[in-house]
Amino acid sequence: MLDEKDVLEAVRRRIEERGEASKLGLPDTAEITWHSLLEGEIVRSIETRTQEERKHYGPIDLADQPEYDTLDRYHVAVPKDLTTTQTITLVRRGSVTERSCDCSNGKTACPRCQGRGDLPCDPLTACAACRGTDSCLRCEGTGNRIRNNPDGQQPLEDRATCRQCGALDAACPVCRGRGRTTCSTCDGQGVRDCPDCDRTGTVPHQRCKGTGRTVTWIEGTIRRKPLVEKIKHPKAGVPYLAWEGARESGHWDRAHLTHQDTLPMDLTHGFRKLVQPHLTPCKGEIARQATFKYLQLARAEAPNHPHRVYYVFPTASSPRVLVLPSQRRTWQIAGATLCVVLVLLLILWLMP
User: Fold this and answer.
1) What residue intervals traverse the membrane (predicted)?
2) Residue 245: closest CA among 297, 307, 169, 173
């Protein structure tokens, strides 16, 4: 683990490697701030157990379903892969009940036709062409000539001989003066098939859904689903380039833990302090797998280098130093860039 002396030496060495010692000078002191970086992932298997009364219309075979007496005591092995979803359906022992319905094998008399299978139907309907109001221009469908001459708006050649009064070229060509035509549904028979029962006179019994029997039972369900938590600490305060440099080449302390493991004794105090809160079991948690990695990052500011910030972290060989502009320097660069853009815009605006 790095200490402040290691950090200062790494910064001085980095300045010398860049050939800037004569220009900037080597710092004798630095203000060092430590950041504990923690990344990881926790996969939890969350279990819920519920039971409810189920009802099935018709026969059903539940012999292959596993049975239980007390749902909370039913043992299911912990899944090997915590990222999978698992659903187990059970039947409470002794809860299966079969009942026969009081209907006749799932059928009951059709309420619309009262079991007859047909319905009364008017054998004649109003003519679709003249609607009965202009059936004959002479007798108006009565059979007695009321008018001497046709005064309708239709040409005579579009009219037919009336079958009621015999007048030529006076009647509707469809109904021939009667004003009504034979019903196309019943073909003039006076009865039609019941549409609800399709002429059978019976319909499925609603209480048993036409099956004639019902089966009820208590069903228990055990559901397991993964809950994945991504860990990153701190969420702010460390520049992106410093994070990426540490991820790329940093020497991280690592730990892989299950729900049965305790924190290893060789973990540093800082690592242990950050990890511990994340290991609190969640509601319904039955298993857990967690992977963490931890690194101490040093932020160093040298008094004689006000425009720079040095980020130092351990690698497999020697400490690595990232040189980034200070916040003050960043604002200066941004301000200078903005000024250049404004000058260019002004020049473009003034150009003819």
Assistant:
1) 331-351
2) 297
List, in order, residues 6 or more apart from 296 with CB less than 8 Å away.
Answer: 1, 2, 34, 35, 36, 37, 270, 313, 314
Q: What is the dihedral of CA 201, 205, 206, 207, to 10 degrees?
A: 160
Exposed, middle or buried: residue 292 (CB in 10 Å: 0-12, 13-18, 19+)? Answer: buried
Q: Which of 288, 277, 279 is nearest to 224 (CA)?
A: 288
Ranked by mean pLDDT, the top range of 31-45, 107-121, 125-139, 173-187 is 31-45
What are the CA-CA distances from residue 52 to residues 49, 65, 88, 209, 221 (Å)? 11, 15, 14, 21, 9
What is the spatial distance between Cα 206 and Cα 97, in angstroms, rounded to a whole number? Answer: 20
- Can you read off the two tokens belonging to residue 275? 């990890």
In the block, residue with structure tokens 């047909």: 118
Residue, of 149 and 203, whose pLDDT is higher? 203
Secondary structure class of 313 (helix, strand, coil): strand
